[in-house]
Automatic annotation (TrEMBL):
Its EC number is 4.2.1.51. Keywords: Amino-acid biosynthesis, Aromatic amino acid biosynthesis, Lyase, Phenylalanine biosynthesis. It is an enzyme of class 4 (lyase). GO terms for biological process: L-phenylalanine biosynthetic process. The lineage of its organism: Bacteria, Pseudomonadati, Candidatus Kryptoniota, Candidatus Kryptobacter. Residues 197-274 form the ACT domain. GO terms for molecular function: prephenate dehydratase activity. This is prephenate dehydratase. Pathway: Amino-acid biosynthesis; L-phenylalanine biosynthesis; phenylpyruvate from prephenate: step 1/1. It comes from Kryptobacter tengchongensis.
Length: 280
């Protein structure tokens, strides 16, 4: 991808968040981080050109999809131009001087709490408090000088906010990866190792989804993921998000999409981008 010398990259959360780490994994030292309050703020900032790119989590290898971001991909006209599969290692962080036995409250994002429930179940008389962000939880206990609480977040967050590690690697499973998408206002088609993401809806007739997917099967195009989301205002109707191997510019894939459009009521191209590698 042809990048400028420096690029502004928006992400949800506070500095040190996993989304920021994913951004640095993708852009390296070209990245100027821009912390935003919500996932929708990331989409809005990319759309308005306030940032050059956005980074959002889309699914976790243990706990599945982040549905809000699937819905936002449909809502906003932005493109996927890259992906990062980042190993998520959780740490229990606290202010210096706080011991594990002092901790009565643990703060973190619900996803992080779920990813660490095995460790958390072993603790006694500790209240688990969901928050909007892992890094934000760490920032809160630091700024408020909380001495009976801890936060679940990444190691980088602890370094950034000057917190002590009480426990490391508290996630349920070592193979805990989150897939992040890189968003752009401009369409950029990857040439190397491409995958493509689209959205479509089918007609409400028997065999409609089978017929839609068959356009890929007949051409031996490998499907990587399919996700369904409810259509607002149309109870029990669904929108399908599909990832498949290949570029939208490949003749085989282009022919499949041409045939698909004939049998669908709605179609949206999300992007052709290079498959991300797993980053430990």
């Amino acid at each position: 991808m042809d990048l400028k010398l420096k690029v502004k990259v928006g992400f949800q959360g506070e500095r040190g968040a996993f989304s920021e780490q994913a951004g640095y994994a993708f852009f390296g030292n070209k990245m100027i981080p821009v912390a935003l309050h919500s996932f929708e703020d990331v989409f809005k900032s990319v759309k308005k050109g306030e940032v050059d790119y956005g980074v959002i989590p889309i699914e976790n290898s243990l706990y599945g999809s982040i549905h809000q971001n699937y819905d936002l991909l449909q809502k906003y006209n932005v493109y996927i131009v890259g992906e990062v599969k980042l190993r998520i290692k959780h740490y229990l962080l606290a202010n210096y001087g706080v011991k594990l036995s002092d901790v009565k409250k643990i703060y973190s994002h619900p996803q992080a709490i779920s990813q660490c429930e095995g460790f958390l179940k072993k603790l006694r008389d500790v209240e688990i408090i969901p928050t909007y962000d892992t890094a934000g939880s760490a920032k809160m206990i630091k700024e408020n000088k909380i001495l009976d609480g801890a936060a679940i977040a990444g190691k980088q967050v602890g370094i950034y906010y000057g917190l002590k590690i009480l426990k490391s690697g508290i996630e349920n499973h070592r193979k805990n990866f989150t897939r992040f998408l890189v968003l752009s206002k401009e369409k950029i088609i990857a040439r190397r190792n491409p995958k493509t993401s689209i959205i479509f809806t089918t007609k409400n007739i028997p065999g409609a989804l089978f017929s839609a997917l068959s356009v890929f099967a007949y051409r031996y195009i490998n499907l990587l993921k399919i996700e369904s989301r409810p259509i607002i205002g149309q109870p029990w109707r669904y929108m399908f998000y599909l990832d498949f191997e290949g570029s939208i510019e490949d003749k085989l894939c282009a022919d499949a999409i041409k045939e698909l459009k004939k049998m669908t009521q709605y179609y949206k191209f999300l992007g052709t981008y290079e498959k991300g590698r797993e980053i430990e």
